[in-house]
Amino acid sequence: MSLILSECMFLVSVNRTHVLSAIMLPNTKHIKSEDQLIKIKNKLNDVIAFHSTQKVTTGRLCLMNKDSKVVSMWLNSPNKPDSIKGSNFRLQKCRKRFNQYDLMDESGEIRLHERQQEYLNSKLLFHAWAAVHNGHVVGLIAHPLIKNSIQHDTAFERYKSLARQALQTFGYVVACDVVITDTDEIKVYNIHESYERKGKKYPYFTRRLPTTSHLSFKYSAQAEYDIAI
């Protein structure tokens, strides 16, 4: 079958059916020091080692169904370890940070900025942290899949710390949501629940972060359909 894949690749850790963690291989063209590149690699290895290193390989985001915008992670490495069975693994389910009713004013009117409407009209793929350089996203680390859903879970906080430390080696770090639009574009949004500027408050201020061209569905391949169940 024909697969529609992202141009960018991810370093991923999986269990039997789901992606546990995903790190987009970063754009480090702005890094000139060999020592700094080694430091980046070591910090990213610390993140991926959080989960079982027996089930780590590379993959790409895979647009499975253009109508329903179903996106999975396709593990396409020829060096995929024998411990990983199957090729397609599910991303964890997650909620958007707000809905239109969160923006209803006291009169009952809903006021949406263009970027807020774009975000709500898109399908959320995953929450993440992004490294930004010269205004563009040059790295992404998705939120991990951790069994404990308690707020401020210590395992999540430890992963978050490792992820932010890694991203800080090649950009400044922001929290973000990664979505797919109606036109099959991958967009990254940074959202502030409460943002104040010149004394005026903006609820759920939504900023679209520019991305480089490789964060898109451009690559297609013929492959046997083999989804983890």
Plain-language structure description:
- A hairpin with a 4-residue loop joins strand 4 and strand 5.
- The C terminus is likely disordered.
- Helix 1 runs antiparallel to helix 3.
- This protein is an alpha+beta fold and 229 residues long.
- It is globular.
- Strands 1, 2, 3, 4, 5, 6 and 12 form a seven-stranded antiparallel sheet that branches.
Any key phrases for this structure?
single chain, alpha+beta, 12 strands, seven-stranded antiparallel sheet, five-stranded antiparallel sheet, 229 residues, globular
Indicate the percent of residues in helices.
10-25%
Task: Please identify the structural class as seen in this structure.
Answer: alpha+beta
User: How many H/I helical runs?
Assistant: 3
The helix-strand sequence is EEEHEEEHEEHEEEE
Sheet of most strands: 7 strands, antiparallel
Low-confidence stretches: 225-229
Q: Assess the beta-strand content as a share of residues.
A: 35-45%
Question: What does the secondary structure layout of this molecule look like, with pairings?
Answer:
Blueprint: E1 2-6, E2 10-14, E3 19-24, H1 34-48, E4 56-65, E5 70-74, E6 88-90, H2 114-121, E7 123-133, E8 136-142, H3 154-167, E9 172-180, E10 186-197, E11 200-209, E12 217-222
Antiparallel strand pairs: 1-4, 1-12, 2-3, 2-4, 4-5, 5-6, 7-8, 7-9, 9-10, 10-11
Helix pairs in contact: 1-3
